[in-house]
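Review form for a predicted model. The reviewer records the input and the model, then writes brief findings.
Reviewer: anonymous (R2)
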Amino acid sequence: MSRGSAIIAILIASIASFSVGNLVGQRSGGGGEGAEVVVAPTDGDGGGDVAGAPGAAGGGEAAPGGTPRYAIPVTAQQPSKGPADALVTIVMFSEFQCPFCSRVVATEEQILREYPTQVRIVWRNLPLGFHPNAMPAAEAAMEAFAQGGNAKFWQLHDLLFQNQSDLSRENLDRFAEQVGLNMTRYRAAMDNHTHQRAIEADAALAGQIGANGTPNSFVNGIQVTGAQPFEAFKTVIDAEIANAQRLVRAGTPAAQIYAAVQRGALTRAAPPTPAPDAQQPQARPQPDPNAVYRVPVEGRLPQLGPDDALVTIVQFSEFQCPFCKRVEPTIQQIVQEYGRDVRIVWMNNPLGFHPNAMPAAIAVQEAFEQGGNAKFWALHALLFEHQTELERPNIETYAQQVGLNMAQLRAALDNNEHQALITSQQQLAQGLGASGTPAFFINGRNVRGAVPFEQFKSVIDEELAKARALVAAGTPRARVYAETIRNGATSQQMLAAPAGAAPSAPAAPAAPTRSNLAVPDNAPSRGPANAPVVIQEISDYQCPFCSRVGPTIERLLEAFPGRIRLVWRDLPLPFHPNANPAAQAAREVFRQGGNDKFWAYNALLFENQRDLTRETLERLAQQVGGINMAQFRQALDTERHKAAVDADMAAAQAAGINGTPGFVINGELISGAVPYEQFEAAVNRALAAH
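Model under review:
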C-alpha cells in the first residue's frame, strides 16, 4: 500500500469511527538499532526489542474508538505556543539531534496555521542516550525559556533544529548569544547543569507513559508516535475538537477542557488494545512481565554476593550507557538491603553506537581474569566514574590505578581478547529480548531499564518468597537458582492475553507482526525475480548487528534454493556518520555493475564496517573491479543517490521500521539479528500461504 493510500484508508476508517486506536498509541521499539528509539531509562541498541517497563494504571477515559488517554501535566514550567484555552493540547516529547523530530517541526507549524485558536503545542524534553549533544541542547533551550519565556525558547528551538548536525558547546553558546540571552547566566546554567533535573523528569515521565522514542506526541493525551504526516495528526485533532465542543456545550469552560479530558487518564503505559478489525494493523505485542527465562551463569563470571544466594540478578550492562551508570547506586542499595540473599552477576552488552563500550568491556574482563571479583569491581567503578572519558589511553590509566599487569592489559586490548565471550553474552541478551541496556533478570524475570529501587524490590521480594519455599521443601540454597530457571524460556515471551488480564504462566509468542513495505521495482536483489518468497532486508553498513546477521541470511538462501528473492533496502541510522555515504556508494556500484557488483561491494563494506571513510569506499570500489572511478567519485561528490537512499528511509519509517536490521518476508516483519530458526519459520509460513 502506498503512503497516500494509507492516509486515505485512515480517513475512511475515521469516518467509520473506529480508526483512532489504530493510528495512535503504537510503541517504539523493534529488534534492531532504533533510529530514534530509547527506553527512558534504557539505552536502545541493535538486535532486539527496546520496549519500556510493563504495567498500566487502571482507570482513565478512553478516546473515541477505545484508544488509551494518558495523563500528562501541563504547567507554566513547559514551553508552549498557542492559546492557553485551546480545545486541544498537543504535548510533544522531542529532542534536538533527532532527524525525525526536525522533520515534524514543519507539521507542527501547519497544525498551528490550520488551528490557530483551537490547538496549543507544549514541549517536553526527551534527549536520547545515543545523541551526545541532545542533553546540552535541551539545557540551552530550557535556559532560554528561563530567561525569556516562550519567545526566547522557540527562537532558540528553531536555531537548534536548523543546525542540528553541529550542536557542539561552542555552537550552542553562539546560538544563545544570537537570540540575545544573558551569556553570564547562560554559561552558569550550562556549566552547573541547572536544568538537567527537570529534563530528566520529562524523560522519566515519557518512559512511564510509553513514549519510548522521539518524536512522541500526545493529543489531549492520545499518543501519536513518530514524525507522522499532517493528515495523521488532523484525524486525531478533529475528533478531539468535536469531543471538546460537546464538553463546552455541556458547560465546561474552554480553559478547563484539557483538565477535563485528562481527568482519570492513565498514568502508566497501557497494554495495546486489539484492533477491532482483523484487517487493521495489529498493535505491537508487549513482553510478559511474569515470564521466567533460562539465563545460565555457569563458569567464572564477575559477581557480588554468595554463590548460594536465594535470588540471582543477572545484569546486562555497558560502560558508556548513561542509564547503566544511573542504576548503579540502586544496585548497591539492593546489595546492602538483602545481604547474602542476593547476588549480582555481570554480563556485557556493549552497544554498537558506543565506540568505547567494547574496549571498556574487554578491559574489565581482563581485570577479572587477572584479579577476580576484586579487580573487576574496582575497574568497573572507575569506568563508570569516568564514563565520558573512555578512550584507550584513559582505560589504560584506570587499569594501572587498580594495579593490573599492563602488558597483559594492552595485549588484551590489542588482540580483542575476551571479545568472543562478550559477543556470546550479547547474543544471549538479544535472544532473550533484552537488547537495551541496562537489563536485569531476577531469578529469570526480566526488568528493563534504570528503574527505581522499589520496582526491583517488588520482584526480588516475590522471588525471595518462592526461593524460601523451595528451601523449606528441601532444595539446597546453592540449587535454588538452577531449579528456578530449569524450565525457563530461551526466547522472548510476549503477552497473548486480552488487555488487563494477568497471565498465570509465560504466554506463547504473539502472532507475526505485519508490514506494508512495498517491494521497489529497481533495487539490488538476489535470487529469481519470480521467487515465491521475497525478503526485504532493511540495513545499515555501520550497524554491527546487520553485519552479524549476514551468515544467517546466507544459510537461509542455501536452505531454500530458488525459492527466495532477497531485496536490499537502505536505512542508514543518524548516529552512524559513514552509513549514508556507504549506502550511496553501494548504489553507484549497483548502477554501474548491477547485482553482481553490488553484492560483492556490499560484502566488502560489512567486512570493513569499522573503517568506512571516503578513502575506504573508493578503495573497495576499485577492489570490486569494473567500476568507472571518475563516475563513482562524482556520484559521491554530488550525492547522486541521496534521494534514493532517503526514499528507502522514508518508506521504512512509514512502514513502522525504525531500527536495523529489519526484514519483511512476504509482509511479515522480523526485527533484529534473530536466530536462523525464526527466519526459517517465517519463510515456511510464506511458502505455505503462497
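Findings: Residues 134-162 form the longest helix (29 residues).
Further findings: DSSP finds 23 helices and 18 strands in the chain.
Recommendation: see findings above.
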